[in-house]
Amino acid sequence: MAVDIQADGYIILTDGGGIWKNFGKPDAKEMAQVTPEYLLGTKAGKNFPGSMGPKIEAAIRFVEESASKNGKKEAWAAIGDLKDAALIVSNQQGTLIRNNVDGNVVWREHAVDENVKPPRLTKDPPKYG
Q1: I want to staple 77 with a disulfide (CB 3.0 to 4.6 A). Which of 10, 18, 50, 71 is the partner?
Q2: Can you give the pTM of this predicted structure?
C-alpha cells in the first residue's frame, strides 16, 4: 500500500530494534544505514530468522518498488523499536534502508559502556513485533 500511495518513507516499529549482524553474539553490531543490495547479499535479506525476516523483506520491497514503479529513488524504509520512534526518522536509532548508502552499509557506533553488553540470545529468543 505504501508503494501504491507513493509514500516517501515506510517505518516498521518493533519491540526489538533495528537490523543486527550476528545478533546475540559478542561481535554483534547494528546497521545504521543499509542498501537493499547489501541485505539481499546477506542472511539479513534472504533468510533472517524469526519474525524479523518479513519486516526486512517488506522494507526492501518498498524501497525497490518505489524506485522501479514510481521513480522515487530516494524512498526509504526504517526498522526500529517502538520506544525510539522519534529517533528513527532522524536515523539516531534503528536501521534506515535506502538505495544510496556509501559502501552499502554504515554500522551504528554504540557508546562504549562496560555495563552495557550487546544483545544475547537466550533460551527464548527475543520477540519482534
Answers
A1: 10
A2: 0.78
* Residue that is written with C-alpha cell 556509501 in the block: 102
User: 3 vs 43, 64, 70, 86, CA distance in Å?
Assistant: 25, 10, 8, 23
The residue whose grid cell reads 539481499 is: 40
Task: State the Cα torsion 47-61-15-31 to the nearest 10°.
Answer: 70
How far is 59 from 72, CA to CA, in rounded Å?
14
Place of cell 517502538: 82
Q: How does DSSP assign 27-56, residue by residue? A: T-EEEEEE-HHHHHTSHHHH---TTHHHHH
Beta-ladder partners of 78? 11, 96
3-state secondary structure of 100: coil
How far from 48 is each of 40, 53, 90, 111, CA to CA, in Å? 10, 5, 25, 26
- Nearest Cα to Cα of residue 10 among 1, 23, 18: 1
For the chain, the structural domain boundaries read: 9-107
Residues 69-105 have pLDDT tens digits of 888 889 999 999 999 998 998 889 999 999 999 999 9
